[in-house]
Design goal:
six-stranded parallel beta sheet; about 375 residues; 13 helices; four-stranded parallel beta sheet; alpha/beta; 14 strands; about 40% helix; single chain; elongated
Length: about 375
Amino acid sequence: MEDYKYLAIVKWAKEYIASKKLKPNDRFLSEKELCEIHGVSRQTVRQALKCLESENVILRVRGSGTFVRGSVPTASVRDTRIGVVSTYFSDYIFPHIVTGIESVVNEAGIAMQLSITHNQVCEEAQALKSMIANGVQGLIVEPSKSALPNPNMNLYQEIRQAGIPLVFFNAKYPWADFPLVAMDDELAGKTVTDYLFECGHQKICGIFALDDIQGHMRYSGYMKSCLEHGIRIAEKSVIWYAAAERNSIFLYEQYKLLEMLHQNTAVVCYNDKLAVNLLRFCRQNEISVPDELSVVGIDDSKYSSFCDVPLTTVHHPHEVLGETAARLLIRMMTEGGDRHEDAIFVPELVVRDSVRKLSPRKITVSGSGAGW
């Protein structure tokens, strides 16, 4: 548990230098003194001193001791550096989110360090450790495999104990108490499913990612809509897949997928990328979209309007979401405090050509509410 105690020492050392009004070239505390004050190992103290030295707060001179090097960083936003951790960057909506973050931090004069995890928890841990070692004063993080047990829980606890502000975007771990900036994914799933019912569809299946919270929330929205429309066995018409292996269902479960598609008139896809792959699969198997099968996506990515059949989807506020996350982090860094409200965006339906309107049938829903 000592791995990140050095962060608390770094913060304490800056406050100590400021409170004692130490000037450049004044002698700073020794390793032994710091060990006694904080009750930690010499290795932990050396980590803290290394971090302070990298930030030009102190200067260690072999055989002479440790000295104050220059002015201690203050709480001013313009003296800070933040870290941004994203699962992906090269395509889809991620560049727009990062652009939104970058526009706000650049305007505030903040330096930004970006790391990509490829949705791997081990790479997430490496990115966070590297950023902390580089002295970032705030973090904006998209979690990896957010619906699965995560071995980085202790790392996030240490980040909180060290007083480093953190904002999650798109999703957050169920056990995390940092604020979240995201689209309302449950409402997104419900919105596209409601639209299919409005267009007269009664047999609606779904394909969702099992390893992230967004997939679970979008599935929840799909199920809520189905239950509200009297469809109580919708869960039997769902295929789950791992987000990093989205093509596996088209390779290893194609017969199961084909059977499900032939039994339904519409399908709700976890996101636009999956929906575009499904359109290709339908074309290869001579299933006409939307004449034989209606398809909806989620996120309104660049793929949604340039594919073979432009997708009906819901709009993800990608760039605005990034801007909001950055402003929230800056507010946390300048105002302090442990509790800040989540910022959740309402999704907007975007209607294109991938849904066929059927003759609506009157539906009678028994009971006052639908239960799981």
